[in-house]
Amino acid sequence: MNTDRSVIYDNHGRPITYLRLSVTDRCNLRCKYCMPASGINFLPRKELLSYEELERLISILTNLGISKIRITGGEPFVRKNLIDFFSVISKNDKLEKVALTTNGTLLAPYISRLEEMGITSINLSLDTIDPDRFKKITRRDQFDRVMDSFHLLNESAIPFKINTVVMEEHNIEDIIPLAELTKKYPISVRYIEEMPFNGSGGNGPALTWTYDKILSHLKSRYLNIKEIPAGPHSTSTNYQIPGYRGKIGIIAAFSRTFCGSCNRIRVDSKGTLKTCLYDNGVLNIKEVMRGGATDKEINQLFRHTFKNRAKNGFEAERRRTQNHNPIEESMALIGG
Fold first, then answer.
1. Range of the structural domain that residue 178 is part of
2. What is the pLDDT confidence band of residue 197, given thresholds at 50, 70 and 90?
3. What pLDDT, in 10s, does the model give residues 139-160?
4. Is residue 185 part of a domain?
5. Does residue 2 register a pLDDT over 50?
6. Interval 210-221 mean pLDDT
7. 238 vs 194, higher pLDDT
8. CA distance 96 to 262
9. Rounded Cα–Cα distance for residues 253 and 190 (Å)
10. Rg of the chain over CA atoms, in angstroms?
11. Residue 254's closest CA among 207, 199, 212?
């Protein structure tokens, strides 16, 4: 690990070292918590940052101290030639970690190549291990493909986690069966509070399955479940069931209890910088790049923007509401 690298801090003294980069808003699933059944108005290809622009962006940000990058979507592998993009960025010696979030439907053919490249972790989105519920939640019949990826990942050397969005009336009965996966497999299963980014103007049922309720549900089955230490910038509070090989995490994505240690920024699929999941975008990188700005000028824009970051997700949401920009976007556009 390179300990001599420079790190930039925001106006609240938090280091910014982690970039979540969405390479596409397109997805081959239609998960209820992410977009309507009819989908969203996907961006024309020219509105996406090209791979060359993405590589330039990563180069600028790693010079500012970004040391971890996670590629997200939509479903990243819907975008053609993504594996070649991974090959390029995995050679960036300023990146200590290169990770991926995927729904797993298109992943299987690429696992061995990702392993060879040294990809450091994969988050697999899986909200149920019941085929019928999977079809109802995703509105697609792709369960077997996802489970093929699950088993191939278990056979690989790539550490991976399962991300599960907890939804009233959709997958509550899966909370315990998913936790049971950690008995057999050395994986982490993380339960995520549902968020308002469903592409329908945030309309949806009120959040009832909060962090506390999820934990209470787990404790009702696992009386001896124990909290275990998490990393300094972890979004999840982590637990382990004694005797089980894996771990369990709960992410308070809607309650936003982890904002005080946030080291993450996002660039969404239309090339907009978000210094908080809940803001409306604070810098149009695509416009700046295509307007002819130099790397030095873009570097300075980033530095200025990072010094005007919202303290937490609630402040970020208040700012956009005050500017008459209510939450309307899909998580597929933002980057899951």
1. 8-334
2. low
3. 999 999 999 999 999 999 999 9
4. yes
5. no
6. 95
7. 238
8. 18
9. 11
10. 19
11. 207
> Structurally, how many domains does the chain consist of?
1
Dmax (CA) for the chain in angstroms is 60
Among candidate residues 137, 21, 131, 141, the one with its CA nearest the CA of residue 74: 21
Position 321, amino acid: T
The conformation of residue 283, written as its DSSP 8-state character, comes to E
Site of tokens 């959040």: 207
In a domain, 147, yes or no: yes
In a domain, 2, yes or no: no
d(CA 162, CA 124): 5
Contact 161, 121 (CB under 8 A): yes
Can you point out the beta strands (E) in 74-183?
Answer: 97-102, 121-125, 160-166
pLDDT, the chain, mean: 90
Instruction: Give the CATH number, domain containing residue 131.
Output: 3.20.20.70
Task: Tell me if 302 is assigned to some domain.
Answer: yes
Contact 97, 66 (CB under 8 A): no
Query: How much is the pLDDT for 326?
Result: 65
Q: Quote the CA–CA distance of 105 and 257 in Å, as a whole number.
A: 32
